[in-house]
Amino acid sequence: MSGIYFHIPFCKQLCHYCAFHKSISLQAKDEMLDCLKQELKLRKNYLGEPLIRTIYFGGGTPSVYQPKEIQSLIDEVAKYFKIHSNAEITLEANPDDLTKSYLQALQKTSVNRLSVGIQSFHDEDLILMNRRHTGKEAFDAIRRAQDFGFGNISVDQIYGVPGLSMEKWKKNLDLVFELDIQHISSYHLMYDPNTIFSKKLEKGQLVEMDEEESFKQFNYLIDSAKKHGFIHYEISNFSKEGFISKHNSSYWKQEKYLGIGPSAHSYNLKEREWNIDNNYKYIKAIKEKTAFSEKEELSEVDCFNDFVMTSLRTYWGLNLELVRENFGEKFYQHCLIESKKYLRSAHLRQEGNSIILNDKGVFISNDIMSDFFLLKEE
Ligand SMILES: C[S@@+](CC[C@H](N)C(=O)[O-])C[C@H]1O[C@@H](n2cnc3c(N)ncnc32)[C@H](O)[C@@H]1O
Ligand code: SF4
Predict the structure, then answer these.
(1) pTM, 2 dp
(2) Nearest residue (CA) to ligand 2, atom 4
(3) Are residues 233 and 84 part of one domain?
């Protein structure tokens, strides 16, 4: 079964840490909606199967579109695919868009999961990040969504932010737990190039949190989420039983997905394809029926590296027997050798045929994964 991702490339304001593709000019919103539908039609055979298990509206800010416009995209999917009766349909929404009237209309659509960007409940952090809402507004937006019957809600938070003391981080988590939501995505702040945060860092106007402090925040997150009944199923993701994100899990489980819209990525087990990350060029290409994406055929080594990276990120871990089955003895032996030192240092543990990151391994997961990666020439 497969999933469809729609990238909605608009935001009303730029957050100073964010490098996702978006434009703050909303002028082309209507034209874009039309182009997303055209792209879907053009690529209806990409997945090679009709059944869709997940639809995900990500961004940018999907909630810049009215619920009826979001529903029109879902209806368009239903024209070319069969949407599973139990499909997970997620909308990423900014708290300030979740007004009463918006939620009332959204309730009537097929969207059954909300992912809301909270980031922090402290107003001084939100000002530093250039968010459009206060902490209280974000809290109230979640409560309002619950009152309108949304029972599958995820929130995004960021830790390791300059000025986010341990005390403030604990308060953020307490408020999230108080909201009694089903899913949490907690990201360590990344200084992406071309963001205001990176520029401020270079100029010395921001000071990066030291690693020991952000490690403490991460550990506190893991412990307290577990205490509140969350499963830590992926480096940055925590869910209550039965609420693991089906859409994101399909990325980690190497399932097929079709990405629609500027900058969206697609994967059909053989190739990766990524759309142009420029709204104007994307619209022009769709209208003129010219190329709007690039693709890369995956070599065996690419597939292996992808498999290692996506598996090790999750609590299911890297299944060594599957490595042997799918890639052969040489790749299997390589994994045995690379895992040895990390098993000894308890950054990894073995359960059955799988090797899994321990909590202390999760924090250095990038180093561990890069030791497992093979170069194309090898
Ligand atoms: C693509 S954004 C869309 C969410 C939605 N537009 C919002 O802001 O509410 C998804 C999430 O990625 C996270 N994110 C974006 N840039 C990040 C960065 N540089 N470091 C850590 N997390 C980041 C934020 O938590 C954000 O909510
Ligand atoms: S975090 Fe969300 S609202 Fe902010 S710039 Fe990124 S996509 Fe837009």
Answers:
(1) 0.95
(2) 15
(3) yes
**Residue 306's domain is classified under what CATH number?**
1.10.10
List pocket residues of ligand 1, CB cut-off 6 Å: 17-18, 20, 58-59, 61, 92, 94, 117, 119, 156, 158, 187, 189-190, 192
pLDDT by residue (tens digit) across 142-169? 999 999 999 999 999 999 999 999 999 9
- CA 60 / ligand 2 centre spacing (Å): 5
Backbone torsions φ then ψ of 214, nearest 5 degrees: -70, -30
User: How many angstroms separate the Cα of 347 from the Cα of each of 235, 312, 337?
Assistant: 14, 12, 15
**343: domain range?**
300-372
State how far the Cα of 354 lies from the Cα of 316, in Å rounded to an integer. Answer: 8
Contacts 24+ apart (CB under 8 A), 332-340: 334/372, 334/374, 335/308, 335/372, 338/371, 338/372, 339/372
Are 61 and 139 within one domain? yes
Are 104 and 210 contained in the same domain?
Answer: yes
Cβ-based neighbour number of residue 130 at 10 Å: 14
Residue 191 Cα: closest atom of ligand 1 = 19
Is the same domain home to 71 and 206? yes
- Closest ligand 2 atom, residue 11 Cα: 8
Q: Which of 20, 113, 116, 161 to mutate to test the pocket of ligand 1 (most atoms within 8 A of CB)?
A: 20
Q: For residue 262, give the 3-state DSSP assignment.
A: coil
Question: Which domain CATH number covers 105?
Answer: 3.20.20.70
Q: Is the CB of 22 under 6 A from ligand 2?
A: yes
| Ligand 1 midpoint to CA 72 (Å) | 25
Same domain, 236 and 307: no
pLDDT tens digits for range 244-293: 999 988 887 778 999 999 999 999 888 899 999 999 999 999 999 999 99
Helix axes 67-80, 29-42, angle to 10 degrees: 10
Model confidence pLDDT, tens digit, residues 91-110: 999 999 999 999 999 999 99
More confident residue, 360 or 150: 150
Residue 317 and residue 218 in one domain: no
Q: Tally the domains of the chain.
A: 2
Q: Chain-centre distance of CA 105, in angstroms?
A: 25
